[in-house]
Design a protein that fits this description.
This protein has about 300 residues and is an alpha+beta fold. The chain has 2 domains: about 160 residues, Butyryl-CoA Dehydrogenase, subunit A, domain 3 (Up-down Bundle); about 120 residues, Nuclear Transport Factor 2, Chain: A (Roll), CATH 3.10.450.50. Strands 5-4-9-8-7-6-10 form a 7-stranded mixed beta sheet.
Amino acid sequence: MIASAGDRAAFERLIGELRPKLHRYCARMTGSVIDGEDVVQDALAKAVEAFSREGGISQPQGWLFRIAHNEAIDFLRRRARQTASHAEEDLDMIDSAPTPEEHLAAASSLKTFARLPVVQRSAVILKDVLGYSNEEIGGIIAASVPAVKAALHRGRARLKELADTPDDQPLPALSATERARLASYADRFNARDFDAVRDMLAEDVRLELVARTQMHGRQVHNYFGNYASVDDWRLEPGQIEGRPAILVYDPNEPDARPAYFVLLEWEGDRLVAIRDFRHARYAVEGAEFVEASPGPIQED
């Protein structure tokens, strides 16, 4: 047990250690690395509040995953209500050496996982991606061991079927405005012309360094000074899961995937929000991305 009075620091260390695993789970449950991080943040906020209130947590790792699981279910319910054409299907699903299964789960895309019924999805992720036992899975998703075994059997079979089905749905093209904004930001940043970057900011700009801190207004100016002190980044305009994004590469690894990404929000020609995943690099794992430079630009 972690005691809330004496072991708050230990609890916070546990959160830090588990956060990448919690994100792997939530990203596959939601089908999105970005939505998955939102769910993780909501889950951890509830966990910290409950930890302070309850005075001690038995088996905190399983407890954290139960909170994350419940938050993911709530997210899927909200999304189902917002998407009328899928509402009935999604709500029905909610109610209701590596092995070959682990290899298949590791190779499957987030979109593929999102096509599994929710209970099957949860069981397969917890077992074949994160390595939990059937008993631990039952505790997390509130199901009996026989029910977990049945969900695993059906989920693995369905995942194998889906793996042979190509996903030919193309990413939406960036508009000319989106492409120009991203390119301007990346070009100024790569030139280390941070004064020019600051000129793009709205007065009340918001910054989230995911898993680290938040700033707003003139506090955000310090953020660029921190980037000026390191040289492990090169920015490229692109897309993450079809959303406009800045892809950040390590120049010392030119053939690697993006190390992380940054989401930008604009109002007119002013940058009003920055969401930087530099300290949450786990989020790029499994993300569908494309650089915008060679791709099509859709006229506004």
